[in-house]
Amino acid sequence: MSKLIKCNMKKGKQYFMVCILALATNVSHGQIKNFNLFIKSIKEKKEQKAAAAKVSPKAEQIKKVPKTDTLVKVQKVPKTDTTQFADLLKQKTKWVKDLAIKANQKLLANTSENNVYIFGGINFSKQYINTGNYNSNFSYDLANYNKAAFKPGYFAGFRLDGKYKQKHKYAFIMSLNKIASGTSYNDPKTLAPFLGTYSKFKADDQFFTLSTALYYKKLLTIGDTSKRKFYIVGGPSIETRLSGQSTDNLVNYNYHRFLLRGDLGLEFDNRSNYTIFLHYKQGITSFTRSPISTTMNSVELGVMLKANDIF
Fold first, then answer.
1. Considering the entire predicted model, what is its pTM?
2. Rounded average pLDDT per 10-residue block, the chain, 311 residues
3. Of 135, 138, 222, 231, which has the maximum CB count within 10 A?
4. Same domain, yes or no, for 195 and 275?
């Protein structure tokens, strides 16, 4: 109890709490003084931290800087490599776009008498195949696959006809084609008398393609050309294979995506009411990858009408 009275005579809440702790634990008054020095040192450290937490003069100066100055400093920040690349990309894109517009304007300025046609018809196709030294784990009896005949398919698309520089007639063609192809193997293998002709490669005979062609048209002076016109047309075409490959050919990805062909045809224009055409398409590049060589040839028979007469 005497310890408690001495503690009350001291000022300070923390010191009083220390005295209570001393009574509870039966600690001497001298030990309380030493513990109070420890408490005092903790208090001084807290005051030092509070003084350090005050705003520094540099921070005060930053706060006093007007917003306009901050904006000026942001504008002076140098551009990064990403920003420079984005600006360069925009410039190049604009240059290509302007170049394409100028080329299109120049092309349209040099073309005239443009007419759009809708056409469709039937095609007959056949593949001529040389397997070379191609080898696989499969063997196919050619009695079931060597069908040396032109098989029928169909096609439909649109066509733009016109004149270039008031002199040269042309036609730009795009069509979707369903091709069913016969197959003719030029170098079949045989193992007589046990096996007949066979091959390690089985050609696909069903394709779905997008055809793009550019033709040059030449008027033939036959009969009265004011009523009926005969044209001979020719030019390159590109077949883009849209369909997949069979499972057997998918193992080695035997078929190419693109096929280049040369087209030649005859067209009959009856008083501008309709046009009947017959085109022959000769394969220029191989439709299959080396060492297999495949030439795809087709014959197209169709009719086309002006789009203005239909719609």
1. 0.65
2. 45 56 54 61 73 56 49 51 79 81 67 86 96 88 82 96 87 96 89 79 94 95 88 96 91 93 96 94 95 95 92 76
3. 231
4. yes
